[in-house]
Amino acid sequence: MGKKQSRRREHLYFFFAFIIITPILMCGCSARSAFKEANDFSSQGNYKASLSKYELIIAQYPTVGDRVLFEMGVIYAFPRNQQKDYQKSLECFQKLIKDYPGSEYRQDSEVMVSLINDVTSKDKRIITQQDQIETLEQQVISKGKGIIIKQDQIETLEQEVISKGKRTIAEQKKEIETLDQEIIKKGDRIYTQQKQIETLEQQIRSKGDKIIAQQKQIETLEQHVKDLEKKVEQLKEVDMNIKEKKKLFP
């Protein structure tokens, strides 16, 4: 299992390397030029223009459709893309897998589908847990209001005890005993409600810890993508050095 996960990480490290290198190896100057233009848009952060260019490429050069779908899927899921759309990214990768079963990008596309599904699943769980926390908070607030009402009732009873100070001692004792019993009962209820509130607060803290842990997992995934970006930059520098050497030694 550990070896499989290691292989998947290695595939991710080379995703963007393939995006830079493959257009150079393609046949046809026009296709190469079109891929370079689309890649330049992406490198400049103009992801919308890059996607539009790739759509033109797939229409003009259907034989490289798998390559284009892979590029578009990566751009739609790219963390720096402010308009990233995981659903559209999944559609690109899934179409590649379906329409190009023999493509060299099939395995990488399957890995990306798995990662994106994992991220979106965690996002949905976080949203659900946040809703649950909000519900629990509302319950705590409601319980708190109930306690305040009970406290007001106790204060009212205490005022009644004071107002009855002019009655006979015997009557006062009986009334006080009755009121004491009521106060004890109400106090027991308040204690029970406080315990319920403490339990709800513990549940909220537990949910919060889970959300923090999931957010850290998402941050780890995003860090993996950032590491890929660094490797892409390094491969670009290598590619530029190769081109310079070719110019010096044609």
Structure description:
It is a single chain. By secondary structure, this protein is mainly alpha-helical. It has two domains: 2-118, Tetratricopeptide repeat domain (Serine Threonine Protein Phosphatase 5, Tetratricopeptide repeat); 125-223. Helices cover 87% and strands 0% of the residues. It contains seven helices and no strands. Helix 2 (29-43) runs antiparallel to helix 3 (47-60) and helix 4 (65-77) packs antiparallel against helix 5. The longest helix has 80 residues, at 169-248. It is rod-shaped, with a radius of gyration of 33 Å.
Give the second-level CATH assignment, the architecture of the largest domain.
Alpha Horseshoe
Helix/strand class: mainly alpha
**Major beta sheet summary:** none
Number of beta strands: 0
Count of all domains:
2
Any idea what the CATH superfamily of the largest domain is called? Tetratricopeptide repeat domain
